[in-house]
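Record pair follows.
FIRST:
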Amino acid sequence: MSRDPSVWGEGYIGAYPPDQFALLELLTPYPEIWAPYYTLHKLLAGVLECYRRTGNKTALEIARGIGDWVYARLSAVAPERCAEMWDTYIAGEYGGMNGSLAELYMLTGEEKYFDAAAIFDNDAVFYGLYEGRDTIVNRHANQHIPQLVGALDEYEATEDEFYLRVAENFFDIVTAHHMYATGGVGRGERFFGEDRQAENIDSDKNCECCAAYNMMKLARGLYALDPERAEYMDYYERALVNHILPSQARTKKRHMHAGVTYMLPIGPGARREYSDDLNTFTCCHGTGMENHVKYGDSVAFVTEYVNLPVAFEYEDAALGIKLTLDADFPFPEAKLTLAGEGRYDVMLRVPAWAEDELCKSGGAHFASGRYVLIEHEAGARVTCPFSFPYVPRLEYLPDTVGGKRAAALMYGPFVMCARDRSKEFITLHIEGDAADCFTPSLNREAGAFSLTGLGHEFVPLYLIGDEPYHTYFLVE
C-alpha cells in the first residue's frame, strides 16, 4: 500500500493517506482502521452544503473530485467484497456516503455519481428491511441509521420505491421494537434484540446521541415525503425534548462551555457526563454542536403544517401568508394566528400523547394523533387558541427487569425523572389509574413543572443537571 501522493488518484482529499481504504478492501477490522468513508463523507457533505448555500463553484468541483475518486476506486472492487466491507463493524461505517453521492448526481446529472452511491447500498441490511424483516439486531446503531437517511436521497434521485420502503420499514421497526421513552436507542452503541429494551438498560451505556440525531434526520426526511403521517413528528418531538434538549449541560465550568453528552444515560442512578472544550472529539460531540439549532427546525413545515408548540412568526408577502404562534414552552397552552391577504389552509398537529377528551381548539374538541385543518380566507384574521393538557401516564417497555415491568413516567411529551443516587431500580406501587398517583406543580415564572407522588418528586429530564437520576421505574 502506497503513501506516495502521486498514486493516490485525482480527487482524493483527506487527513490520512488512502492506505485506510486499501486496508478496508482487505477487510481489516476496527480499530486497526477506523471508518475511512465515514470521514470522507463529512468532507463531501460539507462541500456540497457550501455549494447549496452559496453557489460556490469551487466547492462543487471539490465534490466532483471526491465523487470521481470514490467511483474509480470502488467500481474496481467486486460487489461481493463491497457487501462484506459495509457489513464490517465500524471499519465499514460510511456515514451517509450513499446520500451525498446521490445528491451530487442530482446536482450534476452525471450517472456515475449515482452508480457510486448505489455501491454503498448495504445489501445485508437493505434487502431484509425491504421485506419488513428486522436486519439490525446486534448491529452498530449509528453505523446504519445514516445509511437509511442516505436511502431517502437515493429515492429522491431515482423515485425507486425500494429505497423509500427500506427507510420507512427501518423507522417503523426501530420505533416499535428498539426505542426508549427518550427516543434514544441502543446499548453500548449497538442495537440489541427486538423488544428487549428493559433487560438492556445499563447504567450510563444507553442511547448514543448521534443515533438520536440521525433518527430525527430520518424522521424529518420521511415526513417531508408524507406529511400526513403525524407519527414522524411525534417521534421528532419526543427526541427533541427528551434527548436533544437534555444533552447539553445546564451550567458552565472551567474548560467546559456548552458541554454536550456522548450517551444520554437512562440507568438507575446514572448521571450525565459532558464534553470539555479541549479534549473531547467523539462524533457525538460533533453532532452535539449541531443538535441545538434544531429547536426552530420543523416547528412549521412548508407553511402548511404546524408541528411543535414553539413560538414563531412566519410571513410570505408574495403568497399573502402571515403565521404567528404564541407559545410558552414547556407549557401546553398556545395560540395560532393566521393573517394576510392570501387564501390558505394550515394543518395543526395533535400529538399522539394527547388525551382526546381534553384537546381543545377554539372551544372545539378533536381527536389526537392527527392534524386539524384551520382555514384562512383572504384578508381575514383567524385566532385559534389551543391546548393539549398534560396528563401523567406510564409508558411501559415490552419486556421486564427480573420479571417486573419497567416503565417511564410521562407528562405530556416529557419524560419525568427522579433525582436519586441509588443504583437499584426504584419501585412504584401503582393502585388504580396512574394519573391519580401524581400531583402536578407548575411554576410559570421559572418555566418549570414537576410531579409529586409515591414518595418522589419527578422533573423533566432536561431539567436534570449533573446529579444522579432515574429514568425508568419498576411498577407493581
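SECOND:
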Amino acid sequence: MSYNYSNPVVSSLERNSEVLAGTSGQLMTLEGTAKKAVMLIALCLITGFMMYFKAEGMVADMIVNGGSGGGLYGITTMALIVGAVLGLVGTFFPKSAKVVAPIYSIAEGIFLGGVTAVFESRYPGVGFAALSATVVTALSMFIAFSTGLIAATPFLKKFLMMAGIAIILTYIINLVMHLCGGSGIETIQVENHSLLSYGVQTLICAVASLFLIWDFDNIANSHGRVGKEYEMAYAMGLLMTLVWMYLEFLKLFAKINSDN
C-alpha cells in the first residue's frame, strides 16, 4: 500500500497528468507555497483575534446577565460548519482552493476565536498557552523535518493514518453520545483528570503535531512537480493541521488548568 498522503487532494493531483505538467506553465515552488500558507495563517489569526475580543464581551454579558449565549454559540457553530464544508471542498476539488482557502481561513478564525473566548472564561490563560504551544511545536517540527531528525517514513505515515482514523471515529462516537443525551466518552472529557485521560490527550496532541511532518514531506515532494495553481491547496492543508493542533492543545491546557 502506498501512503503518499492522508488527504485525497494530493493523490488526485499526482494521478492527474495535466496537474503534473502545470496547466499555467509554471510549477509549484516551496517559496510560493510558503507565502500562501503565511497568508492563510495570518488571515486566520487576524480574524481569530477580532472574534475573540468580540466574543469576550458576549461571554462576559452571559456571566453577568445570565444570558444563554445563543448568539455566540450560533456564530461559532455556523463558522464550524462553513469551515468543515469548505475544507471538504478544498480537499476533493483542489482547484477550488484558490477561492475557498481564504474563506476557510476566515471561518476557522471566527470559530477558533469564539471557542477560545469560552475556554478562557472557564480556564484563564489557556488560549495563550495553546497558541504558544502550537507555534513552538510547528517550528520544532519544521526544524526536525528540515534537518532529517524526523522523516516521513512509510511506518510513520501508516501509524498516523491509523491513529487519525481512530481519533476521528472516537470524536464521532463522542458526538453521537452527546446528541443522544449521554455524557460522552469520559476519557476525552476536559474535566476528566485520570492518568489515562492525560495520556490520551497528550497522544492526540503528538499525533496532530506529527501530521505536520507529513505535510512538509508532501510539499517538499511536490515542489516542481505540480502546477503552481495548486500551491493554495497545499497551504490550505497545512492550515488544517495547525487548526487541529491548536484545538488539541487548547483542550490539554484546559484539562491541566481545571485540575489545579
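COMMENT: The mean pLDDT is 88.
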